[in-house]
């Protein structure tokens, strides 16, 4: 099997105009509905079964979004409802998470996405932070990788203007969000360390020594200004322009040693996905350097420990290419090792009416990254990958010869790969996916492209959202 692997030299330099978007104003309105989450779980044109599960009623599915944070899921859902495809909705969801869940998905971090379209080889886009190369600083930082990766995905697979997908995140930052249970839980976990930083305390503090709790309002005007700068000047400004200098200077003042060249060299990598074909089904997984996909794939195909497989992969002295990972999968190379405690992450999954699916996992290499803010940008600075273990970023898509069967991604640190592998084995048997163990799953199960059901872990605080054609006629 031939494998394609190439590094994108400068995706932000590939600026191209697309057909005009049909829904920028409606996207901006999504934030207003998000603020009502504590009071209702329905918005016009939507069909929600509960905060944890939704099924598309008859009439033809426009698509489904499942995420760990409800307001971000609603943003992606609205993109689908207004005519965007799964790549557009995934991009908007990830950008919204940078505002609504900055503990795990800030713009100072990175991640990986799996993109699958009917009849095509699934693709991985990995956008992982680089370690800063400057000397000094007491909080080693990584570069901000998310924007370049998301821009590349949307450029290759999206249908609307990238700026229209920044708009809802910008509006959420400017007008304010409701602190969700997911964000409140993360804030409580790091309260003393986070409040020790003056800039972080100004954003997340509550009174003299308290911290924001679920239901509180959180506006982030500096972050809104940062997003507006990118909307006006383009993503390239953060990596090759004046905003790169602003950001790196702010990170240096906050104790992180990154420089302009580090930002220029922060490049996303697009490759074919890892693939397993068995029982008349094709399973695709995110490929290294997002090696959680290899762990999930080996769990799915052999039933062995996904964490052990990743531990063996990371400990091996061989090459870490896509071809090597596919050979390890084909050979069923299991491992019995274990990984150290891994950084926190978050995940989400999206499908659209055409059968396109996107599954992503995002991380800052630590909960709240370095725990500090990049000055006037309002961005939570991601931790250096040289000082923390690589997060287990994992996602998978299952198809049969006729249609999409499952889209799965997970967090849960060390157990994420095993959770995805087990869920995919269950989906292949056409039985409900159990939410158990320490892995936290976001899942969409389909019986034909027009009949999909999303579910998120009922023990957590996520949202599954679906919409149908007949609600928008």
Q: Give the low-confidence spans.
A: 13-59, 468-473
Radius of gyration, CA atoms, in whole angstroms = 20 Å
Instruction: Give the overall average pLDDT.
Output: 87
Structural class: alpha+beta
The number of domains is: 1
Distance between the termini: 45 Å
Question: Portion of residues in helices?
Answer: 25-40%
| Apparent shape | globular
Main β-sheet, spatial strand arrangement = 1-10-5-4-14-13-3-19
What kind of oligomer do you see? single chain
Individual helix count? 16
For the secondary structure, the number of strands is 19
Q: What percent strand?
A: 15-25%
Give your account of this protein's structure.
By secondary structure, the protein is α+β, with helices and mostly antiparallel strands. The protein has one domain. The protein contains 16 helices and 19 strands. It has helices at 24-34, 70-81, 86-100, 146-157, 162-175, 181-189, 191-195, 198-204, 221-233, 236-240, 242-253, 260-264, 292-302, 306-315, 322-330, 416-428, and strands at residues 5-7, 53-55, 61-67, 110-116, 123-127, 177-178, 205-206, 210-211, 217-218, 269-272, 274-278, 281-285, 345-352, 357-363, 394-400, 404-411, 440-446, 452-456, 463-468. The protein has an eight-stranded antiparallel sheet with strand order 1-10-5-4-14-13-3-19, covered by helices on one side. A hairpin with a 3-residue loop joins strand 15 (394-400) and strand 16. It is globular, with a radius of gyration of 20 Å. The protein starts with a strand and ends in a 5-residue tail after the last strand. Mean pLDDT is 87; it is low at 13-59 and 468-473. Belongs to the gamma-glutamyltransferase family. InterPro entries: GGT_bact, Ntn_hydrolases_N. Residues 1-21 are annotated as: Disordered. This is Gamma-glutamyltranspeptidase.
């Amino acid at each position: 099997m031939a494998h394609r692997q190439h590094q994108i030299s400068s995706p932000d330099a590939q600026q191209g105009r697309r057909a005009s978007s049909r829904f920028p104003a409606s996207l901006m309105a999504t934030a207003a509905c998000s603020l009502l989450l504590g009071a209702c779980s329905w918005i016009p044109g939507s069909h929600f079964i509960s905060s944890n599960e939704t099924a598309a009623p008859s009439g033809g599915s426009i698509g489904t979004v499942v995420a760990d944070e409800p307001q971000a899921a609603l943003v992606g859902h609205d993109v689908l409802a207004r005519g965007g495809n799964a790549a557009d909705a995934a991009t908007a969801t990830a950008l919204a998470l940078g505002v609504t869940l900055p503990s795990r998905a800030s713009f100072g971090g990175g991640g990986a996405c799996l993109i699958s379209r009917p009849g095509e080889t699934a693709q991985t886009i990995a956008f992982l932070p680089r370690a800063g190369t400057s000397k000094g600083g007491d909080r080693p930082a990584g570069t901000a990788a998310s924007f370049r990766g998301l821009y590349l995905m949307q450029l290759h697979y999206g249908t609307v203007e990238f700026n229209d997908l920044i708009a809802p995140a910008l509006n959420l930052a400017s007008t304010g969000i409701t602190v969700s249970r997911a964000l409140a839980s993360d804030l409580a976990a790091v309260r003393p360390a986070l409040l020790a930083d003056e800039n972080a305390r100004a954003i997340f503090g509550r009174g003299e020594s308290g911290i924001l709790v679920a239901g509180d309002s959180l506006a982030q005007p500096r972050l809104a200004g940062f997003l507006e700068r990118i909307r006006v000047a383009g993503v390239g400004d953060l990596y090759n322009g004046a905003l790169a200098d602003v950001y790196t200077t702010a990170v240096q003042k906050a104790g992180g040693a990154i420089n302009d060249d580090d930002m220029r060299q922060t490049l996303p990598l697009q490759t074919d996905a890892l693939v397993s074909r068995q029982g008349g089904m094709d399973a695709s997984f995110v490929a290294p350097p997002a090696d959680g996909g290899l762990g999930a794939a080996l769990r799915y195909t052999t039933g062995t420990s996904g964490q052990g497989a990743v531990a063996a992969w990371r400990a091996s002295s061989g090459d870490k290419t896509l071809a090597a990972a596919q050979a390890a999968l084909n050979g069923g190379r299991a491992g019995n090792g274990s990984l150290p405690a891994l950084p926190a992450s978050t995940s989400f999954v999206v499908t659209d009416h055409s059968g396109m699916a996107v599954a992503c996992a995002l991380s800052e290499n630590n909960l709240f990254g370095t725990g500090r803010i990049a000055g006037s940008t309002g961005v939570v600075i991601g931790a250096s990958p040289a000082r923390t273990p690589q997060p287990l970023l994992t996602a998978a898509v299952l198809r049969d010869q006729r249609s999409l069967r499952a889209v799965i991604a997970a967090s849960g640190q060390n157990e994420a790969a095993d959770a995805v592998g087990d869920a995919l084995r269950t989906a292949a048997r056409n039985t409900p996916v159990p939410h158990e163990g320490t892995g936290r799953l976001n899942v969409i199960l389909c019986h034909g492209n027009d009949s999909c059901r999303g579910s998120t872990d009922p023990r957590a605080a996520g949202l599954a959202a679906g919409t149908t054609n007949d609600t928008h006629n």
